[in-house]
Design goal:
This protein has 197 residues and is of the alpha+beta class. 15% of the residues lie in helices and 14% in strands. It is built from four helices and ten strands. The protein has a three-stranded antiparallel β-sheet, with no helix packed on it. Strands 6-7-8 form a three-stranded antiparallel β-sheet, with no helix packed on it. Strand 2 and strand 3 form a beta hairpin. It starts with a helix and ends in a 28-residue tail after the last strand. This is Lipoprotein.
Length: 197
C-alpha cells in the first residue's frame, strides 16, 4: 500500500512540473516553442577551423619563460651554483640579471641562467680558545694557522683543494703573536682589505 501511494504521489508531482509553465500564467506558452540545437545558426567553415579558446587562459598570450636565477656559492666570492648542473660557475665581473650559459651545456640556450645579486656571503672563522693566532674553519671546523693576518681580512681556506677553495674572514679577537710571520699555506687575495665600518 505504501509503495502504491508513493507511486501516485510521484506521478502527481511530475504532472504538476509539466503544467508549471501554464499554471504560472502561461509564460512558457507565450515565449513560444523551445528551440532545438538544430535551430541554432550554423558556423561557417572558417569559424569551425579556428581553435576553440578555453576560459581566460586561452585569451592570454603565452609569456616567454624567464631563465632561473643561480644561487650564490657560500664562501666563494664571484661564484654561483648552476640551477641546471649544480656545479660552481665563476660569474665574476657580471652584473645582476645578466644571462650566463652553463658551461656543462655549451651552446644550449635553454640552459642559461641569470646572475643573482651578489651579496657578500663570506662566513667568519671561529677563534680557537687558548691558541692565539689560530681559528677554526667555518666549513669543516679544522684548525687553521692565521698568525700574522689582521682581523677582518679575507683568506682562502687551505683545508680545501685549489679548485674547491672557499674563503672566510679572520674574526676580531685573534691574538697575534708579534713575532709571527705569514703562514705559507694561507692564500691572502690582494683585494681583501678589512671591511670598512
Amino acid at each position: 500500500m505504501k509503495i502504491r501511494t508513493c507511486l501516485v504521489l510521484s506521478a502527481l508531482a511530475l504532472s504538476s512540473c509539466d503544467k508549471g509553465g501554464e499554471a504560472a500564467g502561461g509564460e512558457a506558452a507565450k515565449a513560444g516553442p523551445k528551440k532545438s540545437s538544430s535551430a541554432l545558426p550554423k558556423l561557417t567553415e572558417a569559424e569551425s577551423k579556428e581553435p576553440a579558446r578555453e576560459g581566460k587562459s586561452g585569451e592570454r598570450e603565452a609569456k616567454p619563460k624567464r631563465p632561473p636565477v643561480a644561487t650564490p656559492a657560500v664562501g666563494q666570492p664571484g661564484k654561483v651554483i648552476s640551477p641546471f648542473s649544480g656545479e660552481i660557475v665563476d660569474v665574476g665581473g657580471k652584473s645582476k640579471g645578466e644571462l650566463v650559459e652553463d658551461p656543462k651545456y655549451p651552446g644550449d640556450a635553454s640552459k642559461q641562467f641569470e646572475v643573482p645579486e651578489m651579496k657578500e656571503t663570506i662566513p667568519e672563522a671561529q677563534v680557537v680558545p687558548g691558541k692565539p693566532g689560530y681559528v677554526m674553519s667555518p666549513y669543516n671546523n679544522k684548525v687553521v694557522d692565521v698568525r700574522g693576518i689582521p682581523a677582518g681580512r679575507l683568506v682562502a681556506d687551505p683545508t680545501f683543494p685549489a679548485a674547491e677553495r672557499k674563503h672566510f674572514r679572520i674574526p676580531a679577537g685573534v691574538e697575534e703573536d708579534g713575532n709571527a710571520s705569514l703562514p705559507e699555506n694561507i692564500d691572502v687575495p690582494q683585494d681583501s682589505a678589512p671591511p670598512e665600518e
